[in-house]
Amino acid sequence: MTRRRSGFTLVETMVAGTIFLSMSLIATLWLTGVSDVWWTTNTQSHVRQQAHQAVARMADELRLATRTAAASPPNLAVPAVPNNTSMTFYLPADTNDANTTIVDAIGEIEWPNPAVPIQYVYVPASRQVQRVQGGQITILATDVQAARFDDVTTDPTLSLDEVRISLTVQRVTPQQRTVTATSTEIIRARN
Description:
Number of strands: 7
Largest sheet: 4 strands, antiparallel
Order of helices and strands: HEEEEEEE
Distance between the termini: 108 Å
Number of helices: 1
Strand order of the largest sheet: 1-2-3-4
Oligomer: single chain
Shape: rod-shaped
Radius of gyration: 29 Å
Strand content: 25-35%
Structural class: alpha+beta
Helix content: 25-40%
């Protein structure tokens, strides 16, 4: 009588193990690649959105500021290069006649107390762009790599009532990829 053997030989087990390990390695590399692409794409989307929202928020407010006001307070001001990482401006307010508009009875723009300007400031140490008014600080953007404010005094290609904001946001993914997005907008201030 012949005896029937059951089970696998050592060689068969080693071949099957090698095939299983190879397939596992390929699957792991594929999943790692997919994960890296997902994190990079997701981070890029968040970085772009943050830069765009911060610039849009500043632009909305700056459209109400004046660049060439005839009376006080001082006009919107951007420091000279290389210190043009901040700007100071004032917003009109119904302060004189309480008629709920920012224009008085003779057609002049009404201004609040000139001792309380609004400032946008880039703080490199904390990588933030902040809005400062009367001691109150609001963070407009984080992970900021660079911020620049330009007007006709720092860039002669801009017109007298224009201001350009450039904001670069940078973040690192969990896979140590650096993702950067820049948002730039030219705003025409109230003239």
